Amino acid sequence: MSAVRSKICGITRIEDALVAAEAGADAIGLVFYAKSPRAVSVQQARAIIAALPPFVTTVGLFVNASRCDLNEILDAVPLDLLQFHGDETPADCAGYHRPYIKALRVKPGDDIAAQAAQYSQASGILLDTYVAGVPGGTGESFDWSLVPHALSKPIILAGGLCAENVRAAIQQVRPYAVDVSGGVEASKGIKDAEKIRAFIREVGCA
């Protein structure tokens, strides 16, 4: 089995981005959703990306953003990958000249495979916890047994992950990558360096 990739999401500070990169994170996530406590401005995002070393993928997270707003951000911020975390249709996700991943919020009874199959152009499918009215970043995990064994796209596992449970999550789900935000924070939007390092270490040991 190939190494599981890791993404540290909700980065708001240059120092947190650098800790993530130095710890071995494959990607960082920048949240462009004003209602999130982890939201960044265009200026913040540009400064964070400019400080990163090479080979760290920068991911922009969007929730039901208008095409106009999203294009304005893409004109100003050199993002590598888009993450759609709202109710976007496959058509809403296309046409930005960037690869994208689509987040699905998992709850019992969902046909995850059928939902994922709709996003045939996605680079991967991110599975997060369903909490009514909250698009993500809840800090709650879901029942990993709900994840289908054979999805047509690489799986990025999210939702309530931390250093204490990520190894078990990887061993059960066998995802392509894992995504953490609240599980490596000192407070919302402010990362804890040792929690990041511990999380990356556990991913490497899984």
From TrEMBL:
E.C. numbers: 5.3.1.24
GO biological process, one term: L-tryptophan biosynthetic process
Organism of provenance: Pseudomonas cavernicola
Catalytic activity: N-(5-phospho-beta-D-ribosyl)anthranilate = 1-(2-carboxyphenylamino)-1-deoxy-D-ribulose 5-phosphate
Gene3D superfamilies listed in its UniProt record: Aldolase class I (3.20.20.70)
Catalytic EC class: isomerase
NCBIfam families assigned: PRK01222.1-4, PRK01222.1-6
Residue ranges constituting the N-(5'phosphoribosyl) anthranilate isomerase (PRAI) domain according to the UniProt record: 7-201
GO molecular function: phosphoribosylanthranilate isomerase activity
Assigned keywords, A-Z: Amino-acid biosynthesis, Aromatic amino acid biosynthesis, Isomerase, Tryptophan biosynthesis
PANTHER family (alphabetical): N-(5'-PHOSPHORIBOSYL)ANTHRANILATE ISOMERASE
Keyword check for Transmembrane helix: no
Name this protein carries in UniProt: N-(5'-phosphoribosyl)anthranilate isomerase
Protein family membership: Belongs to the TrpF family.
